[in-house]
Specification:
Shape of chain B: globular
Strand order of the largest sheet of chain A: 2-1-4-3
Largest interface: A-B, 75 and 82 residues
Number of helices of chain B: 15
Distance between the termini of chain B: 41 Å
Structural class of chain A: alpha+beta
Number of strands of chain A: 4
Number of strands of chain B: 23
Strand content of chain A: 5-15%
Radius of gyration of chain B: 24 Å
Largest sheet of chain A: 4 strands, antiparallel
Radius of gyration of chain A: 33 Å
Shape of chain A: elongated
Distance between the termini of chain A: 32 Å
Oligomer: heterodimer
Number of helices of chain A: 13
Structural class of chain B: alpha+beta
Largest sheet of chain B: 12 strands, mixed
């Protein structure tokens, strides 16, 4: 009962220490019994303490940090010598994951603008935005259940309201309320059709800016529309969507790098399948 | 209790390992920096989404050949195609599905319980990979699902030591890596540009099945500052879930915010929405517990692929006329007993008793009774709907293109159209959508709308439904072009609590405005039949309910179940002002709105229509299987509390 958590805790501490002094390990793991506390390592311990506590360690704390590190290192070396790392499933899994991260990070570290621009160009459809429009409208309800929109009293009423708008009336005080509101900002044709019904976006696509329209039918009634502004669609400049492209790029790079790395490792190792490998294709599929 | 504390220690270790591995990442800024949204509106926009989505990270999806990841699910929600089972020889799906209308938001909510086990069993070299349990899991099917899933029904669940090690730690370490991928997928799919075209919420499903009664909750976070998932294995009680969410999120001082949405009370045998207090607890302790529950669980999922949970006529505990519209997408099939005040077991297998609390209306009435007793309502529940897809297909609610919800279980038409026995293919449905009124399409705004309950559910169609309640709306409110502003100025939107009554007002006035789903040019939506207001109230300690038709026309609209052709009757838009004719200011009450569409073909009727001659499943001609439905929307309630 007590063994596993202790080992696990130890593994956790070692991982932290290992990350602090990652660069120093090549030297430290050289053959021999010497354990070297370099100024570089000491600075790393100081920085780690600062990061965790928000302040630099006192002299006494720093001495304790170094002592703890030395003790951990002694135990770690001994554990490696006994082969505990190979027997401990947590350590094994962590190393597998770390190696996976290393493979992935090999290329995924810092995409430059050229790489992202190239990615954006080849995946333009994923980032392209549709043109959008901002407009306000005055809604004129079709008489519920009384036939075709725009062929009854509603058409006459809409024409009267338009005359009032042209004479400078406040649109906020005209027409009927609509659940979705009287103003749509920055909406794409698909979103406009989603809100007003199929075809509405096309019907307002050619309206002049800043003028009240003739009555435009939607799925719900008639609308007097004033387009406030239009934004062209297209593939945005990289600078405006850099983060989104980088996220997508990283995802693609990670996948590709991992596959490449594993393929290379497979070439360097002789993988002997003594099992029945026929059922493994499906089983090894990652979620 | 010792066991679960020890395992929590292991989870904390897993978290610290994760932090160590990510130590080179910059910590998240306290307030997210992002461009303002171009679509912002103080009067709030309507967004449709899906808050209940499983992918291959869920143990009960992978065993049925589902291979979609959270990345795939979010891409599907944004309109990209996804390949569904059955799998071809290359291990990829062979049926393609895509949404004709992308969603505005989504949350992937994989089962938190076995994220690590699934990963361990699928990655060669992992702990347990070679163990019989993992081999059985990989073999898939119902037996594979049960390998780990059986623990969700145990009152004392534990992790499989052969897969997870003696302390369960190996699986928790694995789970933290899977959880990281889930968070990354949500962050990567979240549109932070000024377009604000798509929002993701980080979340998971907490999967309590104690006694075979569904007590599941979807846990959703406001940002990506999230703790490791709470699971039924480590916290096998709802109190444990709430306690841990408070400790690791709400009270953690990290800026974390969270809510939990219980779902499928319809198979919980009275347990999911039961209000329980420790024996001997004082009234103050009960008030504190009720308030804490209401704060974490402001919503309930009223509809999804495993049926509707709104109402069932004839159960004990509430007086009112039978409501014919309650006979909608019922998963539990008679005969069953009425739980009365008690609880039962076995609901997820169509077993055990059915409780009034298994339906939202009954739970709301119970909340009123508790409010009257304690002065705090533990169940002031708003409503949403979602799919609960296990195919990684958020928003795939179209009846006509339904390809099933759970991989190989129902990826073939004859499986979906099987009607023999309980929980056969035809008892399920494609699920519904969550609708949200929010200022803009961002995590902050969507989460805030969920928390204040200005949200509603639909059985699939994108019906627009706006509700305001107050004391002073005029009879001409539906002709007032300033209605929306007045709605917020003079009253409260759906989900709100009526403000203090002014003395002159005799009764609350509810304004309802509903627009039909216009659909697309290729697939027009159906018209509206009726708007109803459902009232529940306490009459001297007796729970009462009543349904009022307030707009539209009952029975308008016809559909031919064989051809699915409709007569086109119905309403494009309905707006009405309704004053409660039976209001008593001394009585606790709630009102919610139900909007019914005209009848249309249910998914199975579309499938039967398209079935080849000679390959027509028996259910196509079985009168016991419904062929048409009246799709609908349910608003969150407005609440009234008498002045003390």
């Amino acid at each position: 009962m007590s063994r596993a958590p202790t080992l696990a805790r130890l593994a956790g501490r070692l991982l932290v220490a290992g990350l602090v002094a990652w660069a120093a390990y090549d030297r430290l793991l050289a053959p021999g019994d010497r354990i070297v506390v370099s100024e570089e390592l000491r600075a790393g311990l100081r920085a780690d303490h600062h990061r965790r506590t928000g302040r630099p360690p006192s002299a006494a704390e720093e001495a304790a940090l170094v002592d703890t590190w030395i003790e951990d290192e002694l135990l770690y070396r001994e554990a490696l010598a006994l082969g505990l790392d190979r027997r401990d499933v947590v350590v094994r899994r962590r190393l597998v994951q770390s190696m996976g991260f290393l493979l992935e990070e090999d290329t995924a570290r810092a995409p430059d603008d050229d790489a992202l621009q190239a990615y954006l160009t080849t995946h333009a459809e994923r980032f392209a935005t549709a043109p959008s429009v901002t407009f306000e409208h005055v809604f004129v309800r079709a008489n519920p259940g009384q036939g075709v929109i725009g062929e009854g009293d509603d058409a006459e009423r809409a024409r009267t309201l338009r005359a009032e708008l042209d004479a400078g009336a406040d649109p906020a005080h005209l027409g009927d309320p609509l659940a979705r509101g009287a103003r749509m900002a920055g909406r794409t044709p698909a979103e406009i059709d989603g809100a007003f019904g199929p075809g509405f976006a096309a019907r307002i696509a050619t309206l002049p800016v800043d003028a009240w329209s003739e009555p435009v039918p939607s799925s719900f009634g008639l609308h007097l529309v004033r387009v406030v502004r239009r934004e062209p669609g297209g593939v945005p400049e990289l600078a405006t969507i850099r983060e989104a492209v980088a996220a997508d790029w990283r995802h693609a790079q990670r996948e590709a790098a991992r596959r490449r790395g594993i393929a290379q490792l497979r070439q360097r190792h002789d993988v002997v399948r003594e099992d029945d490998a026929s059922g493994s294709a499906r089983a090894s599929e990652l979620p | 209790m010792r066991r679960s504390q020890r395992v929590r220690g292991a989870a904390a270790l897993a978290a610290s390992l994760l932090v160590a591995a990510c130590a080179d990442r910059a910590p998240a800024p306290p307030v997210e920096q992002r461009e303002p949204c171009a679509d912002g509106s103080a009067l709030r926009n309507l967004y449709f989404g899906d808050l209940h989505v499983h992918t291959a990270y869920s143990f009960d999806a992978h065993v049925f050949d589902v291979r979609a990841t959270p990345v795939d699910a979010y891409r599907f929600a944004r309109g990209e195609p996804l390949a569904l089972p059955p799998l071809g020889p290359d291990g990829r799906g062979t049926q393609e599905l895509r949404l004709d209308r992308p969603l505005d938001f989504a949350a992937v909510t994989d089962h938190s319980e076995f994220l690590g086990e699934v990963e361990s069993c699928l990655v060669p070299g992992s702990t347990g990979y070679d163990e019989p349990a993992c081999a059985a899991f990989r073999a898939g099917g119902g037996a594979g699902q049960a390998v780990f899933g059986v623990q969700t029904t145990s009152p004392d669940p534990e992790r499989d030591a052969t897969v997870c090690g003696p302390d369960g730690n190996a699986c928790l370490v694995q789970a933290s890596a899977v959880w990281r991928r889930t968070i990354d997928a949500a962050n990567d799919a979240y549109d932070r540009t000024s377009r604000c075209s798509f929002t993701t919420l980080v979340g998971y499903e907490y999967t309590a099945n104690t006694g075979g009664s569904s007590q599941h909750r979807n846990v959703l976070f406001a940002s990506d500052r999230v703790p490791p998932p709470t699971t039924y294995v480590e916290q096998p009680t709802s109190e444990g879930l709430w306690r841990e969410l408070r400790a690791t999120c709400l009270d953690a001082g990290t800026g974390c915010d969270v809510l939990a949405i219980p779902h499928n009370p319809n198979q919980s045998n009275g347990r999911l929405l039961r209000v329980e207090y420790a024996p001997g607890s004082t009234l103050d302790e009960q008030r504190a517990q009720a308030a804490a529950r209401a704060a974490i669980e402001p919503l309930v999922e009223i509809f999804q692929h495993k049926g509707e949970s709104e109402c069932l006529s004839g159960l004990s505990g509430a007086l009112g006329d039978a409501d014919e519209a309650c006979g909608f997408e019922k998963l539990r099939t008679p005969p069953f007993d009425d739980c009365g005040d008690g609880v039962g077991a076995g609901g997820t297998g169509n077993g055990g008793c059915v409780s009034r609390r298994d339906y939202v209306r009954g739970a709301l009435l119970e909340g009123l009774a508790e409010d009257a007793r304690l002065g705090v309502n533990p169940l002031p529940l708003g409503v949403v709907a979602s799919t609960d897809t296990h195919n990684g297909t958020p928003g795939a609610v179209d009846e006509r293109t339904f390809l099933g919800h759970r991989g190989s279980v129902d990826d073939m038409a004859d499986e979906r159209l099987a009607s023999e026995g309980a929980r056969s293919g035809t008892t399920f449905n494609p699920g519904g959508l969550a609708a949200v009124w929010a200022e803009e399409n961002t995590r902050e705004a969507i989460f805030a709308a969920l928390a204040r309950r200005e949200v509603y559910g639909t059985s699939g169609p994108r019906i627009a439904l706006r509700v305001f309640a107050g004391w002073s709306f005029g009879a001409d409110a539906c002709s007032d072009p300033g209605l929306l502003q007045a709605g917020y100025d003079l009253g409260v939107p759906m989900g709100g609590v009526l403000p203090t009554r002014d003395d002159a007002a005799s009764a609350p006035v509810i304004v309802v405005s509903a627009l039909r789903d216009a659909g697309t040019a290729a697939r027009p939506g159906a018209r509206l039949e009726r708007v109803q207001i459902v009232k529940g109230w306490l009459d001297g300690g007796i729970a009462r309910e009543r349904v009022y038709d307030v707009a539209g026309q009952a029975g308008v609209g016809r559909v031919d179940a064989a051809t699915c052709a409709t007569d086109g009757a119905g309403f494009d838009e309905l707006c009405t002002v309704w004053r409660d004719p039976d209001f008593d200011p001394a009585q606790h009450a709630f009102w919610y709105v139900r909007v019914l569409e005209v009848p249309t073909c249910r998914w199975n009727a579309w499938a039967c229509r398209d079935a080849a001659d000679g390959a027509r499943p028996a259910s196509c001609d079985d009168p016991a299987v419904p062929k048409t439905i009246r799709e609908r929307a349910w608003s969150s309630p407005v609440f009234y509390r008498p002045e003390p």
